[in-house]
From TrEMBL:
GO terms for biological process: translation. It holds the Pfam family Amidase. This is Glutamyl-tRNA(Gln) amidotransferase subunit A. It comes from Methanobrevibacter arboriphilus JCM 13429 = DSM 1125. The keyword Transferase applies. GO terms for cellular component: glutamyl-tRNA(Gln) amidotransferase complex. Heterotrimer of A, B and C subunits.
Length: 461
């Protein structure tokens, strides 16, 4: 039963919202101590909300589109009266004083928030090992990292602890853990989802998006959280289609839609990726070709420029965003208590931001980003999708020591979508030695629906 089917059962009173929630609470109590996907559970308020939803359904009152579905929220998105720690000692006692726009929208549609998910400290990482509250286990590949920085959000889905989670994606932080945990993760077009209430990592790159174990879960979440927000300066004021209608339109119609598509594979994506992963991705591309899509190949000559461009921008913007954590208003002073990677990014950002360097590095990085964006848009101009691996290598074992550059290498294929502001999703393509491998789908800005369509078509196979 997918998420949409479950939501219909709840609305038809064939499944109680309380029953759905209690099943998840039982799973969390059993599995979370070993997985560490959730940092905090708000059982009482969630149960109270579920009872209200059941009461509304029983009395034939109007209910929201997410009625009775259970959400986990990454611990850097504000939820009123919950601890919004960003998995850092800096904010270990900071309670959210308001709901982020995405949280308001979920609550308005009767979605139930069960708790806050673990993550890399301040979203600065690709493994969820840098959390002050301990690493998250990968339920799909025990002993390995779940990816990051939204590792708790992906692990909560992979271990069936909730219906949908929200993560944030700055350079792949939703798609990377989705790939490693064998679930679906989606980064919408930049500006399609309000960032109001998200703790910044890098404001010109950050985007909130959903994770689920089926495409209808992603679609229902997108239909709720996508949309204009006048309180947020990057918010796009435009119409998006119903993603749920697209995802649930049936196998034949989905295949029909994919048949008219032209999809692109980029040679350099293969060059930087492990051969075992490439083999699995090729099989997924063949499936799309078998549905009738035209598959073409091309080159992207700026792949070596992507990581340095991304990290230079990230360092400067992260340094700027952390100046408010000075120990006066919010928790502890960040430099006094943060972990190694967060401190590295603050120090690098501080250094690059100095008068004599900012022009030299940051402005050059912004020029490089324009070049990358133009090149990607050129590649997308006469195709519908770019297909390829989500992550170029398999997840390492928890506790294995990696150099910073080895850790950053996980992001080489995911940072491109953030630099270009385009939508991108990851779904499970297969497994190598029992470890999930993700297929990444990228599209033109505002063509988020084409990714949903293709994912749903692949899922229907």
């Amino acid at each position: 039963m997918n998420t949409f089917e479950k939501s219909q059962k709840i609305k038809n009173n064939d499944l109680k919202a309380t029953e759905n929630l209690e099943n998840f609470i039982a799973t969390i109590e059993k599995n979370n101590p070993s997985i560490n996907a959730f940092l905090e559970i708000n059982k009482e308020s969630a149960l109270s909300q579920a009872k209200k939803i059941d009461e509304k359904i029983k009395n034939g009152l109007k209910i929201g589109s997410l009625a009775g579905l259970v959400f986990g929220i990454k611990a850097n998105i504000n939820v009123e009266d919950r601890i919004i720690s960003a998995a850092s000692k800096t904010l270990e006692n900071y309670y959210g004083s308001y709901d982020a726009t995405v949280i308001k929208k979920i609550k308005e549609q009767d979605g139930i928030i069960i708790g806050m998910c673990n993550m890399d400290e301040f979203a600065a990482g690709s493994s969820t090992e840098s959390s002050y509250f301990g690493a998250t286990e990968n339920p799909a590949a025990p002993g390995h990292i779940p990816g990051g920085s939204s590792g708790g959000s992906a692990a909560a889905i992979a271990s069936e602890m909730c219906d949908i989670t929200l993560g944030s994606d700055t350079g792949g932080s939703i798609r990377n853990p989705a790939s490693h945990c064998g679930v679906i993760g989606f980064k919408p077009t930049y500006g399609a989802v309000s960032r109001q209430g998200l703790l910044d990592l890098s404001m010109s790159l950050d985007q909130i998006g959903p994770l689920s174990d089926n495409v209808s879960g992603i679609s229902m979440a997108l239909d709720t959280i996508v949309g204009y927000d006048e309180t947020e300066c990057t918010s796009l004021n435009q119409k998006f289609p119903s993603f749920t209608d697209i995802a649930t339109q049936g196998h034949e119609k989905l295949q029909e839609d994919v048949k008219d598509m032209k999809v692109l594979c980029i040679n350099q994506f293969k060059d930087v990726t492990d051969e075992h992963i490439n083999k699995i991705i090729d099989e997924s591309v063949d499936k799309i070709g078998d549905m009738g899509a035209e598959v073409v190949e091309s080159s992207f000559d700026y792949i070596d420029l992507c990581l340095p461009t991304y990290y230079l921008i990230n360092y400067v913007e992260f340094f700027s965003s952390t100046r408010k954590y000075d120990g006066r208003k919010y928790g502890h002073k960040i430099e006094d208590v943060c972990g190694e990677e967060v401190l590295r990014r603050i120090e690098m950002g501080s250094y690059i931001s100095q008068q004599e360097f900012s022009g030299k590095y940051y402005k050059k990085a912004l020029q490089a980003r324009s070049l990358i964006r133009n090149e990607i848009n050129k590649l997308l101009s006469d195709v519908d999708l770019i297909l390829g691996p989500t992550v170029p290598k398999l997840p390492h074992k928890i506790g294995e020591k990696l150099e910073p550059m080895e850790m950053y290498a996980y992001d080489v294929l995911t940072v491109i979508a953030n630099l270009a502001g385009i939508p991108a999703g990851s779904m499970k393509a297969g497994e190598y030695n029992g470890i999930p491998v993700g297929l990444q789908l990228q599209a033109k800005p505002n063509d988020d629906d084409k990714i949903i369509k293709t994912m749903a078509a692949l899922e229907s196979l």
